[in-house]
């Protein structure tokens, strides 16, 4: 069921969602994480989802919203000096190149709508393979600046924090979201 | 100091390990930190040298197993699964050499087939294991919890696709009590999780849940888990598309 007012999630949806995700009792909660991919996959429902969930978090609690960007959200082809190209391709066998700036504008709209419900610190996290950390951070900074320049990120009092999480096949061997991690793990043991 | 700059760069690590003995000693723990093996029929894209239990055997022969901190047994299909037939006296000997194992991942573990002697097979990891990842484990709720209870220092738990698959909770299962209550104060990761009774039993047998971080993707009993961790939860990872698996469960 779609909301008639785009700024307000529908009552039925909110009620159903709050049956599962009412966070008002989780007093120690300080961070909500999600992925850029999940926001894109949810399309228009992402805003409603987060607005409803955020409305259940105590307003006095400082909250970080961490949005995780994987390699494929940042670059069409991971690259580095020591990765073998064939193995890099195996990571993302099915994804097509896409317009990252356009995708970020959708995400930026979601962040703005979330911020209308509650104050939070936005943290953009480049959760990428080791070889892409620098490139990932630069890309996120560039996109954030472009978005800021056109007023897309005008809501927060503080700028988004951009961080990285260095990922290797050793640290994320059970990672099913990064293509065929099994092949990568085997590659690691082959050394 | 020098080596710590290369811990993510395997080629450089390998080169460092070949320069002199002291550099070898510094580099080798990072090089052999993770051991992965493929348990299943040979597939065209997987070199036979990675098939179970060859990597384990080779590392054992080279005396490298005490360096392994992460060990994963992968499978593409659930046949034959990882059951007692996958283990022999020799492989148990390899297991006993994994003296510093902290993270264990097993795909298609037939917990039910290992009962009641499962402790003899996996008890070697009890003192050190901190992270357990099970993809599509087979067994009743009590059997799976009994397996988890083998590891008294377990902090993080990851369960992927643990569908019920027709396992019945027998009368004998009802009396099955885990050997320990692991702390489980780290991260809980659940993917496509429909076994509500597993969570309910976990709350009872482990005297509540104490996870500080959660990653819940298409989980049927989100409310129950969030309530159980209401005092401890600090970080929650959410997925706005099909957040509690409604669409997924309808399929």
Description:
The complex is a heterodimer of chains A (191) and B (251). By secondary structure, chain A is of the alpha/beta class. Chain A has 8 helices and 4 strands, in the order H-E-H-H-E-H-H-H-E-H-E-H. With 251 residues, chain B is of the alpha/beta class. In chain B, 31% of the residues lie in helices and 17% in strands. Chain B has 11 helices and 8 strands. Chain B has an 8-stranded parallel β-sheet with strand order 1-2-3-4-5-6-7-8. In chain B, helix 1 (10-17) runs antiparallel to helix 2. In chain B, 41% of the residues are buried. At the A-B interface, helix 1, strand 1, helix 2, helix 3 and helix 8 of A face helix 1, strand 1, strand 2, helix 10 and strand 8 of B.
Quickly list its features.
heterodimer; A: 191 residues; alpha/beta; 4-stranded parallel sheet; 8 helices; disordered N terminus; B: 251 residues; 8-stranded parallel sheet
Q: Provide the low-confidence segments of chain B as ranges.
A: none
Apparent shape of chain A: globular
Q: How would you sum up the major sheet of chain B?
A: 8 strands, parallel
Number-wise, the strands of chain A total 4
Which consecutive residue ranges of chain A, at least 5 long each, have pLDDT under 50?
A: 1-7, 85-94, 170-191
**What is the average of the pLDDT values of chain A?**
71
How helix-rich are the residues of chain A, as a percent range? 40-55%
- Distance N to C terminus of chain B: 53 Å
Structural class of chain A: alpha/beta
SSE-based structural type of chain B: alpha/beta
- State the helix count of chain B: 11
| Global geometry of chain B | globular
Helicity of chain B, as a percent range: 25-40%
Strand/helix succession of chain A: HEHHEHHHEHEH
How many strands of chain B? Answer: 8
Summarize the structure.
The complex is a heterodimer of chains A (191) and B (251). With 191 residues, chain A is of the alpha/beta class.
